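okkk here we go again. third time trying to get the coenzyme A bound version out, last two times i messed up the smiles copy paste (missing a bracket lol). double checked this time i swear
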Amino acid sequence: MSSLRLPRSIETGRLFMRCYEAADVEALDGDAIRSIDHIGQFLPHAREELLGDRVALLEDARRAFNAGERFAYGIFLRDGSFVGNCGTRWVGDGELNIGYWVVREHLRQGYTREAVQAVTAAGFEAGVTRFVLNCDPRNVASIGVARSAGFTYLSTDERVGDRGVRYAEMTWELRPGGQAIERYAAP
Ligand SMILES: CC(C)(COP(=O)(O)OP(=O)(O)OC[C@H]1O[C@@H](n2cnc3c(N)ncnc32)[C@H](O)[C@@H]1OP(=O)(O)O)[C@@H](O)C(=O)NCCC(=O)NCCS
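finally!!
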């Protein structure tokens, strides 16, 4: 863990991202659950968490955000519609891992790219030295996000999961100054 903190809320041209609140359980109960098979395809842990106690999940996300352990942002449109999640957690001194998922109805509109660009920019401003992104080599959507947000591909490695299952994992990184140019103008 680090003493660095990310801001509680971040605004972009189209998005409002913030630390979760208890009332966000409605979005998880509705939009996220309707998208669970899509979200869970490459994120089995997120699937398990979202199908579990969602009130406790949000409470823990807030606790961890306040403690500086990890920073999970709910992504919303300006009209309040829930888009998805962008979360970061410490993986080294000044180094955060970043992950994301978006509900089905908001896919392919550049929202994840915009969210990742904003969170990484806020992180670098706060003193983060590196963002790491891991994804399954078959996850073309996540690879698309990594590329379009300016991450650099490092390696694909074999890992052994919780239950001894082997899987391949890609690692990408982003360092200060490496971000892609913002392509979405503010409305
Ligand atoms: C990965 C995910 C968050 C991408 O969300 P998204 O909001 O649709 O992504 P964006 O619209 O911001 O797209 C970013 C880039 O990826 C590309 N991309 C997105 N989905 C793609 C797909 N299915 N196939 C090919 N490229 C894709 C886009 O074209 C865009 O590239 P560009 O900027 O060069 O045009 C979404 O597919 C998802 O929720 N997947 C399930 C959960 C998951 O796998 N999370 C990542 C775990 S590592």
